[in-house]
Amino acid sequence: MNHTIIEESGFKYIESDPEKEQTxxxxxxxxxxxSNFSGxxxxxxxxxxxxxxxxxxxxxxxxxxxxxxxxNHVSDFVSYKGYRYLNIVGNSxxxxxxxxxxxxVPEKLQSLxxxxxxxxxEEPLGSTFxxxxxxxxxxxKTESTFxxxxxxxxxxxxxxxxxxxxxxxxxxxxxxxxxxxxHNIGDRLDQIKAPSLLVWGKQDTITPAFVGEKFDELLPDSxxxxxxxxxxxxxxxYPEEFNQVLEKFLVSxxxx
Length: 256
Description:
Layout: E1 6-8, E2 11-15, E3 22-27, H1 34-44, E4 49-53, H2 67-81, E5 85-91, H3 93-104, E6 109-115, H4 135-143, H5 154-164, H6 167-182, E7 196-201, H7 209-218, E8 222-227, H8 234-237, H9 239-252
Helix pairs in contact: 1-9, 2-3, 4-5
């Protein structure tokens, strides 16, 4: 399904049901946004206000480009929209941003869902960053994100290929990745009192399953679900199962 991207006051975002009080805020990772979350949007629209702010990884001035720069953008966006109650879902880098934002504004947080989140441990890009100009290599690296390589559609591979072949975009991705490695938040997770759901792929090679287990150990009120034959993006590989797990969690905690 096509989703309309709204652009206003320096923000780009999707919003499903602005009249609803409960907001499901989805924060994407370094690669992909809409394609990553389309299953969640379609499942939850009509039940809550599903919102996807586009993180300005390629728009922020370089001097402001960091994990905290993205957190500040989310904070400004939430303030601009006036959202009061947030159930936040973050994948990969988006999970990292979600954690830091939650620590800054605990009074807005109704629940936190992390899937393949950075913040404790992640494989650095380093020498494995896809080689410019080599489409086959980019395709292989993109496919390795998932347990089932077929999940890496041509559209997604083309998006990654475009990024790594644009020098400015590639520099920004590396800068953000390095910033994420510097912002380890293990010693602050005990401050998050809201209920947390952790959905991890057992075959995640970027933030391995033990990372999800560590999050579960450090968060005061958390539930961990490990998905077999699943990589770094459970909501893309198993959208129906992911949505069932997320909805059951939100309903059981009285959030929808």
